[in-house]
Amino acid sequence: MIILQCLQHISGERTIYSILHLLNGKKSAQTIQDAHLFKLTNVFSTYPLLTRSYLDEIISSLCKQEYLAPISEQSFLVTQKGIKAIEAYFSRHPIPNHLNGWQFHKTTKLFWERLSLVVQVISQLRNQESKYLPIHKKRELQKWLKFFLREAHLSRDELGDRLYDELVKCLEAHPNVNPDIFVKRLTGFRQIGLTEGQAAEQLCMEKDEYHLQFLGILHYMLEICEMKQSEYPLLNLLIADRRSFVPLTETSRKTLSLLNNGYSLEKISTIRKLKRSTIEDHVVEIALNMPSFDISPFINDEKQKVISNAIKTATSKQLKYIRELVPNADYFEIRLVLAKAGEKK
Amino acid sequence: MNLEIQLEKYFAYTSFRPGQKEIITSLLEGNHTIAMLPTGTGKSLCYQLPGYLLEGQVIIISPLLSLMQDQVEQLMMNGEKRVIAFNSFLTADEKNHALLQLHHYKFIFLSPEMLRSKSVIDGLKKLHISLFVIDEAHCISQWGYDFRPEYLKLGESRDKLGKPLTLALTATATKEVKNELIASLHLDHWNEFIYSVDRPNISLVVETVESYQEKSERIVELVKRLEGPGIIYFSSKKLTEWMSAYLREHGMTRVMAYHGGMEQENRVLIQQQFLHGQLDLICATSAFGMGINKEDIRFVIHFHMPLQLESYLQEIGRAGRDGKKSVAILLYSPGDEQLPYQIAEAELPSEVQVNAVYQYLEMNHHMTTNLASFEIDIRRISGLTETQWRIIRDYLVDQKELLLKVQFQKLTLFINERLQVKKRKISEMHLWICSQIQQCRRKKILKYFDEDMTIEVENCCDQCGIDLTVFDLKISKHQVANSSYNWKQQLANILLVSERSDEK
């Protein structure tokens, strides 16, 4: 269903595989721009394990149900029947409000691994049982755990009490959040948490729906942590080393810092030994993610206006249609304006 | 020295299991020792305790990554931090760093191929090695299903390290295998402790059914009536999931699948749920069970036949570790033996694949000097699975000085030979299942391992006659109501209340 909805958003203007990249969280300029343009940033990177062949299976089953109609080999339009199905489904199973794949895709998994490990360790400590199997075995996590226990400056009992308070407060703060979805997954002393599939089954949800709900809660927690840092010191400590305010790829970040030092695009391209078009991709990515980023050094105000008007009149968001309306603008300029337009909603 | 006191001090056990004390004493007296202990009777203690009592480092050679990982975790769980595993998971940096710190460790696990590395051997030479352990020592045998060519070099490596005190451990080995072991390790005097592979508290049953469908139905019947907990083994990952879903549809809620293709986090959770009694039944591939110390497993069912009697013994050996009566049931339907043959063939590279690799390497001669770093390319052009690739790589590494063409001729011979051995193993297993001759199943297994059956076993096997009702549920299963679930209470249980105080 979520795939059908994504296809509705892109309304045949991209291939189905752009959805795959989006759900997988591929960090290409094209995918990032698509996510913003089609307002699908919330589901970015929410199904990193979705495979091409599984997507093909889903698509063919959706076609069989007549929810989709092909318009070319790899593009499909959602049918009237499909739209009704989407409405019916999502009115009963809404996508969690707090889902924000784009903003949190880098921290979600880490946050969960660390939080669930900390909960387990505290539970074991409080029960004075040092013989147990940690649910996460990665060495970095074990190393990090030592850091956490040191930085928290609390006794084991206090740690448990405070973490309990923070979690309860956080989970109760919002009426739309169902804490069961989260708490059933936690492991403690002599009680092992459920897997994703088991939790979904107990809560009578489909696995994919549960998955989004669960991510929604994690994103909600991350959001609330960020907004109210002082109220959730322990939860914040979980991601203290990973906080970056603007989600950018490493390579775009480098380009941004060169831009801030006053280098031109050509100059950056030579310094970084990258193609001009790659640097342009970076600039578009930055424009998408930094509301404060000024695009006027790359395109004058007048041209911006012309392009925005063209975007409004164009029936499709495919670049080539827009370009037909403003032949004197290049793709880079159109993408920049699109990036800004998408952000203003 | 009172070994019982030491046992309690280091492991909090009050008594030894059969064989452990004798083996440990032999080692402490300075004798090279060969020990065959059946699965599930605490082999690792035989090197762990001496490790604590002797000065210096214990080197453990272990062929299976997952097994090694399990043993490392067990030691760590027991509070031992001076443990390290050298295997392909380690990055070069980590490896070099660990090599400089070697003397800080007590237990050093190594995969056999690590012993080929000069830097590793040089590092080990600087240590005082108190004990050199070869785990799964039967892998040294060319007649075994699990033959590892690298194991043949163990004697050489051992010599380089100055012939330290040696312990060879295995669960199952025929006389033939034992002799090969002694020869390749260059042992001239040794003690041996051979314990029967028999587990008299496990009844052996083979049931023949007509079809796949009937098999599934029979499984439902069996798991409904048998006293749990239990494990059902499959040769296919997909079927483990299918069957656990099928059983849940039939009203059994506490069933889950387990296989190597699952995400790590889920694997740990399922394993731990089973250990803590939150699940009664696991539908698993053979990946499940290693390193799981659950004492009270009451039954093991085989949906598919294992590829050799040794694996069968190992898998059923996970039942009844507490010594209480347990049952192993193998379900056979005609034609089942096809699957193991297919699996055996798929484990080895095919002729076409070997040829493709050969042609490719002839054209890219520079790759032969460092095969491992061209893994991706070589596997892509030949479509080798990881297991298949490893066989080719390991074989070629040993033959470097020969012409490429000769290397590949020998490789082809080697692969054919391996296939023959595997096929022979499968036909032995098949014969054990389907033999027309009415004879005690236990006796036949023991004969295979050159043992004579000495004790009479009640409810021995289907050939001797068996009463399955003995293994039926004593009290009917009560369904735990989930309706009272309260997340805040659950969170409090985990983070706040000390449950231990309630138990006292």
From TrEMBL, chain B:
<dbReference type="InterPro" id="IPR032284">
    <property type="entry name" value="RecQ_Zn-bd"/>
</dbReference>
<keyword id="KW-0547">Nucleotide-binding</keyword>
<dbReference type="InterPro" id="IPR027417">
    <property type="entry name" value="P-loop_NTPase"/>
</dbReference>
<keyword id="KW-0238">DNA-binding</keyword>
<dbReference type="InterPro" id="IPR011545">
    <property type="entry name" value="DEAD/DEAH_box_helicase_dom"/>
</dbReference>
<dbReference type="Pfam" id="PF16124">
    <property type="entry name" value="RecQ_Zn_bind"/>
</dbReference>
<dbReference type="InterPro" id="IPR036388">
    <property type="entry name" value="WH-like_DNA-bd_sf"/>
</dbReference>
<keyword id="KW-0067">ATP-binding</keyword>
<dbReference type="GO" id="GO:0003678">
    <property type="term" value="F:DNA helicase activity"/>
</dbReference>
<protein>
    <recommendedName>
        <fullName>ATP-dependent DNA helicase RecQ</fullName>
    </recommendedName>
</protein>
<dbReference type="InterPro" id="IPR001650">
    <property type="entry name" value="Helicase_C-like"/>
</dbReference>
<feature type="domain" description="Helicase ATP-binding">
    <location>
        <begin position="24"/>
        <end position="191"/>
    </location>
</feature>
<keyword id="KW-0347">Helicase</keyword>
<dbReference type="GO" id="GO:0016787">
    <property type="term" value="F:hydrolase activity"/>
</dbReference>
<dbReference type="Pfam" id="PF00271">
    <property type="entry name" value="Helicase_C"/>
</dbReference>
<dbReference type="InterPro" id="IPR014001">
    <property type="entry name" value="Helicase_ATP-bd"/>
</dbReference>
<dbReference type="InterPro" id="IPR002464">
    <property type="entry name" value="DNA/RNA_helicase_DEAH_CS"/>
</dbReference>
<dbReference type="InterPro" id="IPR004589">
    <property type="entry name" value="DNA_helicase_ATP-dep_RecQ"/>
</dbReference>
<feature type="domain" description="Helicase C-terminal">
    <location>
        <begin position="218"/>
        <end position="377"/>
    </location>
</feature>
<dbReference type="Pfam" id="PF00270">
    <property type="entry name" value="DEAD"/>
</dbReference>
<keyword id="KW-0378">Hydrolase</keyword>
